[in-house]
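Why do we care about 3D structure at all? Because function follows from shape, and shape follows, mostly, from sequence. That is the central idea of this module. The next example makes it concrete: a single protein chain, its amino acid sequence, and then its structure expressed as tokens.
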Amino acid sequence: MEGSRIECVSCGAAFQGREDLYGCSQCGSLLQVVLDTKGIRHEALRDAWRDRPFRVWRYREMLPVEGGGEVTLEEGGTALLHVGILGPSGSKVHTFVKNEGQNPTGSFKDRGMTVGVTRARSIGRTRVICASTGNTAASLAAYASRAGMECIVLIPSGGIARGKLAQALFAGARVVSLRGTFDDAMRVVRQAAERLDAYVLNSINPYRIEGQKTAAFEVFEQLGGRVPDWIVCPVGNGGNLAAYWKGFRELKAIGATDRLPRLVGVQSEGASPITDAILQGRDDIVPVANPATVASAIRIGNPANYRKTIPAIRESNGMALKLSDAAILEAQGILARSEGLFVEPASAASVGGAIRLAREGVFKEDDRVVCIATGHGLKDPESALRAKGESLPIDANVDAIVRAVEGGAR
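And the structure:
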């Protein structure tokens, strides 16, 4: 995409698009890709988009990588399912789940990685690195393998679901387990990258957000060219919610719509620095030293993208809330039992948040509410089994089976 630049989200300093930066050299804040929308109109793009597969690169005119050569596993194009999860309090609300677990490695991270790894290859990088609670590691390892790059992953010891770890290992990543939390891994990843001559592909890299914003374009198309009233999204580092906001704002800028959604960021009670800042009216976060939640994908105490996420929620006239682990697991079960959709606990936070807001009467009749399910349930089956328990073996005869089914045994 021509006509894009890198800009600081805080001081506005601009940098050349080919510079290899992860933070502002003037003030130390986050960077973003700014699309020059002059001359870009939705009417001119609509037919071209419709002629392409429903995938991330359908929207290549809106992505900051030129010259083709995409590193792709055919990510994106995930289902938007109409669901009935809100109960009587949400009976007149149109509720949807964006099922990002359908991406190649089972999470929304693939959207960012196809663009981020493509960018890395376009500037001649051969080694990539990330800190991760799991999904980022699995995704980067897969896309690095696809691109023929070396991949290094820093993980908190004991803080990553085994399904995600297995994905990274089998894709050939060099996995380095660190004592401490994800935040400790993030604290050292940039310095490690400099020493190892590796390209950082955490969401501090602005090109990651560019891929993730394509989910907003998809939701818009899947709703028949309409913007939802609400986007409800789990929040860990905060990059994904900021990406949705960026995507919808760009749709408005190119004349596709004159509306924007309200954003809801959902965190766990044990890891809620962004929610706490919103509720207390602060612009900065107070990091959580020892984040604790069953939702490992959002077990982040010092989120790197809060400077993007907090303004996005406020600009959208949105809100932030936090849920107990019990409420998150309850929502995970509701979605599986009522809709057959098995998501990891972090994904269920969006569903739990929507259920709570419906009970509180926040949604209006005919509102369109989209819950973002960020990852597949098989990413973290241990949490589900701990919550539900495993069946005890019984004798292999019909009487025993009938007793078990009718409640006489388990």
